[in-house]
Task: structure prediction
Amino acid sequence: MSPVAMTLPAPGRRAFGTACALSAAVVFAPAVMRTRPGAAGLGRVTVAVGGQGVLYHLPLALADCLGYFRAEGLEVVVRDFSAGAQARQAVLRGAADVYSGAFEHIFRAQASGQACRALVLQGRAPQLALGVSLRALPGYRDPGDLAGRHIGVSSIGSSTHLAASLLLLRSGVALRHVAFVGVGSGAQALAALRSGQVQALCHADPIMTLLEQRQDTRIIGELRSLKAAQDMFGASMPAGSLCAPQAFIEQQPAQAQALVNGIVHALKWLHTAAPADLVKAVPAAYLLGDQGLYLAAFSRVRETYSTHGLMPDDGPATALRVLTHVQPQWAGAKLDPECAYTNEFVHRARQKYDV
Result:
């Protein structure tokens, strides 16, 4: 078990289809609304995401691209933001109905008095990596060389910020010795690293694999595999989730169930899909002009996708321990891991799709 895991305190009790014709630069542009017209039955639901096109949100993208939401009678509109923290805030201010993002954002919502729950788990590891710019730090030797440097994350308070903080702490680097900079996602994040605005970057794939393969970065921290997550956290760490305010769950249960049905169906498809199937299913712009690179990135994180969508029993408490370890100010807040999720919609979806 890693030092971080050992020192954590004990727990208490759109539519994506339209993007097929868009360039990578447009796919990664923040706050762009995309919609697929024509769905009927349950009406429209708006989903906020932080960084549409990153593999973190792949199950959601597949559910739409493969027509699984439409089969449930649901029209899904995606609003894209530059980071998961901004996607969560969009829901809290009424600009979207639900959001796809890191599970620990639920606790940030609780701390602000907003009751939210994760409806379905998409990822069971953070799927993030920390890389150092080889141009800015050609003589890099160890994490201590990052003291006094700028570390790029999608936004302050995002999952990338949390992961970078954990990876640095584990390496013995005090967080007060570095400066975290919000650089957004996709093309924005790439430009920030390559221009020297930041000297290191913590982000998701395919961005990190692209930087690594083109020798822009040296990866110094990994959370893109189940083993890496287990070593870091010592327990199940829920990551990408579809989350909704309690009011949405109570007032629109049929829409909530349709969303979960679509994602559980997509997780089932993803579990057995061949690489060629994936390339055909996702919008072409997601491939960043390099099919081989995209598939290499996918292969790194494939095992981390949930196979059924259920939240593990120890997952919420683990996420809360991690959050309060890195940001002790949250320890005094009234945060309840038992009220942070529900598996009831997933149980029904699994019966429907025999998952």
Notes: Residues 3-125+236-353 form a domain with the D-Maltodextrin-Binding Protein; domain 2 fold (CATH 3.40.190.10). The first helix runs from residue 3 to 7.
